[in-house]
Design goal:
Layout: E1 3-8, H1 15-21, E2 24-26, H2 32-40, E3 46-51, E4 57-70, E5 82-97, H3 98-102, H4 111-114, E6 120-123, H5 125-136
Parallel strand pairs: 1-3
Antiparallel strand pairs: 1-6, 2-5, 3-4, 4-5
The protein binds a DNA duplex through residues 7, 9, 31-33, 52-53, 56, 98, 115-119.
Length: 137
DNA sequence: GCCAACGTTGGC
DNA sequence: GCCAACGTTGGC
């Protein structure tokens, strides 16, 4: 069981849309580091969804319902990109803003803070629990 | 709108 | 293999 943070620009795909869709394929990851993390995600893992851009907040939790499978891209022939499928688990009652994250000592080692551009990253169980708790307040 | 951080590309 | 130039992302 692992925990992840998935970052998305809400104007591209939002957690609200995921709630409507019930399930979606998390694709278009075109960064090797993010791709490698995606490959490690297992069915049943939980992921915090973070909205970049105007929101800048963690907005909910999703679960991985299908492990990595090919996400072919004609623009990069020969490169094996992958996608996963996720379903919503919980919408945070209160989004956990980036400023809140930065001011929470227990979250100071979150990769998001130092690597804001990385779109898929592992988080510890402790980070997951802290984010979930803050999201319920 | 700007800039910092980072990744990618291409010339050498 | 190095590094300058360039493109992209995301925060401010």
């Amino acid at each position: 069981m692992h925990y992840w943070l998935l970052k998305t620009e809400p104007s591209t795909y939002s957690f609200a849309q995921l709630l409507k869709d019930k399930k979606t394929n998390w694709n278009d990851v075109r960064n090797y580091q993010a791709r490698n993390f995606l490959k490690e995600a297992s069915r049943g893992d939980l992921a915090v969804i973070y909205h970049s851009g105007d929101d800048k907040a963690a907005v909910g939790v999703a679960k991985i319902v299908r492990e990595a499978y090919p996400d072919p891209d004609p623009e990069t022939p020969g490169v094996e990109w992958v996608q996963i499928d996720i379903s919503p688990v919980k919408l945070f009652a209160k989004p956990v803003t980036l400023s809140k994250i930065k001011s929470t000592a227990a979250l100071s080692s979150l990769m998001l803070i130092k690597q804001s551009r990385l779109s898929v990253m592992p988080i510890s169980e402790a980070h997951f629990k802290t984010l979930s708790r803050l999201g319920e307040e």
